[in-house]
Amino acid sequence: MAMRVLVCRLSDVVDDELRAFPVRGVTWPVIVTRIDGKLVAVPGVCPHEDVALADGDLHGTVITCPGHSYEFDLRTGKCTHDPTLSLRRYPVTVVADEVWVDLL
């Protein structure tokens, strides 16, 4: 069962920019950005070695982890060079100006 949490407001989200939002009761923040006009939410930690992804770089749709340069396509969550790794993508729901994310 998913846990739906309020993460931020639409005005907090900037196109093509990484922004991490703390979520009460969750160890890592949730990153929310807008890619190609669509809201994308992912964990704020790299699945490779628990490095904060919000400190990474975003080029187009690809986020690069600052720890070991692992790259993940935010459209799919897939790692660009290691098929065994993927970045979870959370379902996003917008209610009025609130961004709600289903943490699985």
Annotate the secondary structure layout.
Blueprint (H helix, E strand, L loop, with lengths): L2 E7 L10 E2 L8 E6 L2 E6 L13 E3 L2 E3 L6 E3 L18 E4 L2 E6 L1
Antiparallel strand pairs: 1-9, 2-3, 3-4, 5-6, 6-7, 8-9
What does this entry show, briefly?
0% of the residues lie in helices and 38% in strands.
How would you characterize the overall build of this protein?
The model has no long low-confidence stretch (mean pLDDT 94). Helices cover 0% and strands 38% of the residues. Strand 5 and strand 6 form a beta hairpin. It has one domain: Rieske Iron-sulfur Protein (3-layer Sandwich). It has strands spanning 3-9, 20-21, 30-35, 38-43, 57-59, 62-64, 71-73, 92-95, 98-103. The termini are close together. By secondary structure, the chain is mainly beta. The radius of gyration is 13 Å and the shape is globular. The chain is built from no helices and nine strands. Strands 1-9-8 form a three-stranded antiparallel β-sheet, with no helix packed on it.
